[in-house]
Amino acid sequence: MKINGLTYLIVGIFVIITSLILDKFIVFIFVGFIFCIMGVIRLFTETKIDEELVKELKREDKFIETHGKDPSKFIKCKFCKAYNYPDAQFCHFCGRRIN
Ligand SMILES: [Zn+2]
């Protein structure tokens, strides 16, 4: 299950607004802030991961063209992070053993 940064931000803002309306729950403002901070951090991390994935996909373009377009089907080499065919024993890119 994946919760993205935007969800955290929305929940955080919602919690802050709710606690501002209901004075009794003023403590929840802090919870709201924590959620907002987590959301912002997540948004940045997600963007970074996406950029890395795009780089990898570009490098593996030819491979994916040959074997199919869905990168989630492939095993990722832990040494060079290249995508490999699910039943591959060795990485096609760096030649090291995958499993
Ligand atoms: Zn490799």
Notes on the structure:
There is one protein chain. With 99 residues, this protein is mainly alpha-helical. It folds into two domains: 59 residues; 37 residues, SH3 type barrels (Roll). Helices cover 57% and strands 4% of the residues. It is built from three helices and two strands. A two-stranded antiparallel sheet has the order 1-2. A hairpin with a 6-residue loop joins strand 1 and strand 2. Helix 1 runs antiparallel to helix 2. The mean pLDDT is 80.
Please give the structural blueprint.
Elements: H1 5-21, H2 28-59, H3 61-67, E1 75-76, E2 83-84
Antiparallel strand pairs: 1-2
Helix pairs in contact: 1-2
The structure holds zinc ion.
- Span between N and C termini? 26 Å
Q: How many separate helices?
A: 3
Q: Which class of secondary structure composition applies to the elements?
A: mainly alpha
**Count of separate structural domains:** 2
- Compounds present? zinc ion
Work out the number of β strands: 2
Rg computed from alpha carbons, rounded to a whole number of angstroms: 21 Å
Shape: rod-shaped
Compact description:
With about 100 residues, the protein is mostly helical.
Which labels suit this protein?
single chain, 99 residues, mainly alpha, SH3 type barrels, 2 domains, 57% helix, binds zinc ion
